[in-house]
């Protein structure tokens, strides 16, 4: 019902936009307007994308627009409905590809998604400094955010706990939306929050509250193994210049891609033009935010991890000498996996499972089909 209501709103919005917006046209290889979905305006994720799209718009003369949502469904649904063509996404790009979590439902199932560009971003758990929470082990018994409709963030929090050998049973979960976390930490509703470390809302919080980051030991082999069992895409690397850090200080946290993604049927030429523009305009937006230096074309991920790269991206990486035989083999394997997932989903739907049982039964179906992991 929630999805139907959201879809109805999106379809209504589509009709309204079509009534008041000129027809889409191509301008220097980019559709005009080109719409991106991403996180809210107070996040570093949004700030990065705003800087990049502004540079690309200036370069191509096409209009690039951003729509926002705090939820995984809210970011991917506009892409599914055709309102947005691209998204800078959290792990919903993985969950959508796999038909996992909210996307294990009668209205979704595995989606034919592709990565367009994969810059890395640092994320961590922020706490009130006065509480003395310094490591994941200190989270035992604490009030932890259960972020509404955001399995990507909740999964990362669970991975932080797993680093210390803890589970959700060891903490008190507090329901909160993604954008409400800073206020909830300030008021004491929660004892930690999880976000990309350079969000403007976190710097605002720092001006009112002494804060500090939870540190991960990059040499903690057993802890890292437990993290990778839950989320193999995560790297444990240092970040600096974030709220609560002294000048020159660094903290180890999760560093991973929040990629720009699209559906597989997006034009290869348009994706290639978009990626080429992002790469060529990098010097113009490099210093726009604390995280945009990580958009350097030489620093983005160039080997697919969990979903395939788009052919337009592959073409660019070949031209720039960054595409390898290893990357091609991995990409081919993931494309084949996506085809298998979507074929098995059609067979699964024929069993007419009760909608409340779909996540559990689909997970069991994938295991039986030898599709549990990529």
TrEMBL record:
The entry's keywords: Signal
Signal peptide positions on this chain: 1-19
Tagged with keyword Signal: yes
Stored NCBIfam families: TRAP_TAXI
Protein name: TAXI family TRAP transporter solute-binding subunit
Species per Swiss-Prot/TrEMBL record: Brevibacterium aurantiacum
Upper classification of the organism: Bacteria, Bacillati, Actinomycetota, Actinomycetes, Micrococcales
